[in-house]
Design goal:
about 400 residues; alpha+beta; 11 helices; 15 strands; about 20% strand; globular; disordered N terminus
Length: about 400
């Protein structure tokens, strides 16, 4: 369950005229105005993705999400948070009533501050998530029953969540924000929003929004979800030439190596910092997402050259004791630079995702059951300390 309502700073519901039908009409109209060459280029970059069009069973849901998010982001644009963050920023709930559904925005001011700290303009965020084009769906190899979507430009990732997972995220949100301030180059996926959606008087559905680790998607050749264990960590690859794109797992990665050159030491240190933080939160079952992209000849060897590439660094806490702990690096002047790491031959997209599973009674019982079922084999449900140590060891063993 989520925290009781009296724990939140609740704003009065807002009744809005924009309906999901209006949002879908806007998306259709916008699509019709696109040029032929633009549409062909978009189709090429969407390999393995499927538009959630009018025939799709989830089309009504995504139309509501788009219309609701457009209005919710407009609130943060009209009333941007000012001054220092407060406890109320993390506890606020804004409910907006639309035609046929309600959309809730949880901890809206806190997430608006976080988006601003990442240099993300609210206008761009709204344009990507609003009814400017259909959401995209992909085939997930996850065992969960969650639904996964990408915004039409593939910049943002949306995932439905259970109530208990949302509660964990909101409970940890102040410490999560603090960690990103202290370690601005963290590998943790950037969580940008948490929302609820209720149709008529039905049950609330919850979903999160985060930056897509695999962005920009062009030329990505392989994608992996790594947990550092064996059980249920194999995905049957698609036949060569298939338009489907699957995210592979640990056992698919056997005999492969991440060649980072001088950046390896940075990655190992950042993994230690981030997994130590997740261990403190008593969290497990998170994944290291990873993708490969071959560099063109004219891109190789440019990592340290300021002539060809503008290098930049994010600002974090500046107290003397924090400078060494931040583990900064030069960031390429490229989209999603925080999740991009260039090696001598390949570009790697890296990010830690699924940060909402707490090691409570349910997971402790699951650990005991798997110990009996899989003697001598490694599986995901172990203590947070062991989970963090094992994933760091996996990265150390598979990098050079």
């Amino acid at each position: 369950m989520l925290p009781p309502a009296h724990c939140f700073w609740c704003l009065p519901p807002q009744v809005l005229a924009l309906s999901p039908e209006a949002g879908c009409r806007a998306a259709t109209s916008s699509s019709g105005r696109r040029g032929l060459l633009w549409r062909l280029r978009e189709r090429q970059s969407r390999l393995g993705l499927f538009e959630v069009g009018p025939e799709h069973e989830l089309h009504p849901l995504t139309c509501m999400m788009q219309a609701g998010l457009w209005a919710a982001i407009q609130v943060s644009m009209d009333h941007p948070p000012t001054g220092l963050p407060t406890e109320e920023d993390f506890a606020e709930v804004l409910t907006q009533v639309h035609e046929g559904f309600e959309l809730g925005t949880l901890a809206g001011p806190a997430f608006a501050r976080l988006r601003r700290s990442l240099g993300l303009a609210e206008e761009d965020y709204q344009a990507s998530l609003g009814p400017g084009g259909p959401y995209l769906q992909f085939l997930s190899t996850s065992k969960s029953k969650a639904s996964f979507f990408l915004s039409h430009d593939q910049r943002f990732f949306l995932k439905t969540q259970r109530r208990r997972e949302v509660r964990a995220l909101l409970t940890h949100l102040p410490r999560y924000v603090q960690h990103l301030q202290r370690h601005p180059h963290s590998l943790l996926a950037r969580l940008l929003g948490v929302h609820s959606l209720r149709v008529a008087r039905g049950k609330k559905k919850y979903f999160i929004i985060m930056q897509n680790v695999f962005y920009p998607t062009g030329r990505i050749s392989e994608r992996y979800d790594i947990k550092g264990c064996e059980v249920s960590r194999w995905v049957e690859p698609v036949p060569e030439g298939s338009p489907l794109v699957l995210v592979l797992k640990d056992l698919n990665f056997q005999d492969k190596t991440i060649n980072l050159g001088p950046q390896r030491s940075w990655l190992l240190r950042q993994m230690e910092l981030d997994t130590a933080f997740l261990r403190e939160l008593n969290v497990l079952d998170y994944s290291l997402l990873m993708a490969f992209q071959h560099l063109h000849e004219d891109e190789k060897g440019l990592g340290s050259s300021l002539i060809f590439r503008t290098a930049r660094s994010m600002q974090g806490v500046q107290s003397p004791e924090e400078v060494e702990a931040q583990n900064r690096r030069l960031l390429p002047d490229a989209p999603n630079a925080l999740h991009i790491l260039d090696g001598p031959e390949q570009r790697y997209f890296l990010g830690l995702v699924d940060l909402a599973t707490v090691y409570g009674l349910r997971k402790r019982l699951e650990h005991l059951w798997k110990t009996l079922c899989y003697p001598g084999r490694t599986f995901s449900t172990v203590s947070p300390a062991r989970y963090a140590r094992r994933l760091c060891q996996w990265v150390e063993a598979h990098t050079e």
